[in-house]
Amino acid sequence: MGSVQIVTTILAAAITAVAVWLAVRAVLKMVAVIRLGQPAPERFADKVTRARTMLVETAGHTRMLKWGVVGAAHWFVMVGFVVLSLLVLEAYFEVVTTGGGLPIIGHWTIFGLVTEIIGVLGLVGILVLMAIRLRNRPSRPGGRSRFTGSTMWQGYFVEWIVLLVLIFGFVIRGFKVATDHFEFPFWATPVSHAVGAVLPAWEDGVSVAAAIKIVISMTWLIVISLNVTMGVAWHRFLAFPNIFFKREPARPAGSGLGALRPMTSQGKPLDFEEADPEKDQFGVAHVEQFSWKGLLDFSTCTECGRCQSQCPAWNTGKPLSPKLLVLSLRDHAYAKAPYLLAGGGKDLTGEEKATQAQLAHLDVLALAEADKPLIGTAEEGGVIDPDVLWSCTTCGACVEQCPVDIEHVDHIVDMRRYQVLIESSFPSEAGVMLRNLENKGNPWGAPPNTREDWTKGLDFEVPRVGEVDDFEYLFWVGCAGAFEDRAKKTTRAVATLLNEAGVKFAILGEGETCSGDPARRIGNEFVFQMLAQQNVETLNEAFEGRDKAKRKIVATCPHCFNTLGNEYGELGGDFEVVHHTQLLAHLVATGKLTPVQPVDGGVTYHDPCYLGRHNRVFAAPREVLGDAIEGELTEMPRNSERSFCCGAGGARMWMEEKIGKRINVDRVEEAMATGAKTVAVGCPFCSTMLSDGVNGKGAGEQVEVIDVATVLLRSVKPEQPQAGKETAPIGG
What we know:
This protein has 732 residues and is mainly alpha-helical. The chain has 29 helices and nine strands.
């Protein structure tokens, strides 16, 4: 060992020791912060499925590859990071001696070939990612991007570190080639041989280059260890457990979509018959009241901004960005952590749990952070502004796009729950909707005895449950379908088509009440439970004596479809629920309904969030339209899982949209840009919002918004009267 090797060995050992010590300290801190969260025992169930899902998502990059070039480049960089870590380890042998290498595998030609290929592809991948980040930098001319709000220096730092480590990997090999210490043939490592051809035969070059590579790598580890909120780096490690512990590992995509996470206290679902606000947690009032998985979510965020780029609120000038919301919660959690770890915190009555002695040594900044309200305006020093919280439509675009399975919607609704149930703080106009739900059983406040008025004028009898026992489907009409003028046309169309196809169905009539979706999404779990339990009891009575295969419900509203099918199971309601487009597609496919006159004029289809993204029903409505229209369906640029929200979800249907551009107008402009004369929908909320948007653009005479069922009815029974200009909905 020469003098150069002695120096490089000491340098490598010293910086590695410092980096490892800091990394261990950082990991222990992160674990301590995450453990501050509430229990979530359900996250440990079905470990085999969780492990399989985690391996498929990470190794296969199934979520990242939705972004094409970005996903492929990131995959090469990820594989490069994992596999080429072996070359960083090899560098510790190379600082000691020029001919050093990994024991056993370090001299295998296949090892040289694989690492050469991965090194080249990793270089290409990281250069592509750097170019994309620069092209989309927030400071560029043209305004905001998905990186707006991200800590840009951290992204640049990580990318340059990756680039330099890859470059110095080839420099080390090049010096080995130049000094005849390289064991791999040219055919397996052509790039390394090409680098060696231009480098001098410097015997100490290998050790010096290896030392530089180690210093670069350990500098990266030191920097991220001193910045535990540096998600752009830490997600490389935290993504694995975050994906493993996601809520529904068996879902094909978007764990955290569909059903909401139940309201829990100390890890157990809350029983409202016995719950006590002084003993049980009602929603989230403080960051430590999120589950430990929530805190892991916040720590894992990579700041990539894919959620932000898809969010309808962000895209229309609202203050909500799912990414910035998560980052705010993350930064607040880690800033507040010293106070919490010292024993601080408020109990459920608002009293301080720590003694003065426990808090005496704390930094004043940690104490100041502890005093911040979780929800509050800038003047109040709040972590999350109320306008941010109430801008969310719960469309799920953020959850769908997140490459590390963060469950944004669950966290937003948890914060809403506390605001509604304990603080009674929510947009005032939504109070009317909640009172109507409690008093009338529907959000519009319509008289319950008018639920069957939509049946008047039909040329066939609509049977009621109780009057007939021999029915295949219970037709869940829903509040919109029973009371809102536009939606009633859809209800009548579906009933007519079912009757035409010979499907035996029955309705509950006045026995039906709101599914509870608007109450649950706004955060009023109490009202949801009240309505849901009433409906479950009614439905179980209607299906008494039947097994699940014969407890079939068809619903026209995706919100009802989602609630009945995904959430009523928690309350003892086990049903097979289908959306009307699914049933209609089946009836057409089996020849029970036959389109005879194609509808022309051009048709585009708007995917409802709670039908498509939340429940993966994309094909059925398109199949129905494909059979009923003339020519090809014209797709909007944002469709299927990337469909843009109409703006009505998350109880936003009953809240004023006062900030930025109206979401429904943005979507209508996209629909009109296709040139289609008909915008087909599969949701009464979407119908209302898009119709209002079309009328607001003054295009009501040129563009018609109608349900998929109405399109099919016009094709099956051309003699049916065409819908004229839509009347205003109840409650406007």
